[in-house]
Amino acid sequence: MGTGGRNGLRPGKGNAEGVAAGKGNTDGVAATPPAASASCQYRCIECNQEAKELYRDYNHGVLKITICKSCQKPVDKYIEYDPVIILINAILCKAQAYRHILFNTKINMHGKLCIFCLLCEAYLRWWQLQDSNQNTDPDDFIRYAKEWDFYRMFAIASLEQTAFFTGILTFLWLERPMTAKKKPNFILLLKALLLSSYGKLLLIPAVIWEHDYTPLCLRLIKVFVLTSNFQAIRVTLNISRKVSFLAILSGLLMESTMVYFFQRMEWDVGSDCTIYKSQDL
Question: Hey, which end of the chain has fewer CB within 10 Å, N or C?
């Protein structure tokens, strides 16, 4: 989630690579790039108003942060912040940090991050499943079956996440007259949901130190991911907390329906409740 200050900026913000270092401009200020002047593609992190540029690049590398015309505050103060500071603010679920990451930076790691998180979650479920079975038979057929159990856990985790996102998007689509004056950008929202699920990376310690985690830790990770998704929805569509909360509930309802379907099919989804139930039996 962290982005590296000026290095994480999207192209065309008045930087040295996007302009000719002030050539052809008599006042010594680098001209605004055509891409930025043609449309307002950035957002003020304070008031969410559209902006044409984030900063002006003067001669000799002197930069001046653009002031928002609406709130009279810097459009994006995070362009001068260290990536670690941005990451900390994102972990704290600050709306300003989310706007900086979603609107004013160029990040193309949505798919890779999603697959990596799903692999961690699938492995954790697979390990829980194997631990509950307590089967140490070294037979090749058993090992082959266990390998396919991992693939099954990955498929189930993917379907559950798909159901969660589908529930959110469906609710927001039905409520679109209330959520925004103009047509919401669901592609951007989907990317925001994928990025805001970075909290699942906290499953990595649970994968490495298999015996040192507790079910409470997994539930806290789930709550953190849901909180991040909630903030991503609110920031991306600029809607109220109530509508964002209802969207999260709709996603959870759809996900729970998918889990119930798998349990009715007598598929072990590797969830905590299923593992405990099998251990009690």
Answer: C
Q: Between 62 and 227, where is the model more confident?
A: 227
Tell me which of 79 and 167 has the higher pLDDT.
167
In angstroms, the CA 137 to CA 151 distance is 20
User: 30: number of CA atoms within 13 Å, CB side?
Assistant: 24
63 three-class SS: strand
Q: What is each CA distance from 83 to 1, 8, 48, 174, in whole angstroms?
A: 9, 9, 21, 37
Model's pTM, two decimal places?
0.74
Residue 169 to residues 130, 180, 214, 236, 246, Cα–Cα distance (Å): 35, 14, 32, 13, 11
Smallest Cα–Cα separation from 98: which of 222, 3, 221, 200? 3
**Residue entry with tokens 């008599």:** 26
Residues 16, 4: contact at Cβ < 8 Å?
Answer: no
The SS3 call for residue 134 is coil
Is residue 162 predicted with pLDDT exceeding 90? yes
| SS3 category, 204 | helix
Mean pLDDT for the chain overall: 76
Cα(215)–Cα(235) distance, rounded to whole angstroms? 31
In this structure, the number of other CB atoms found within 10 A of the CB of residue 10 comes to: 18
User: Within 10 Å of residue 135's Cβ, how many Cβ atoms?
Assistant: 10
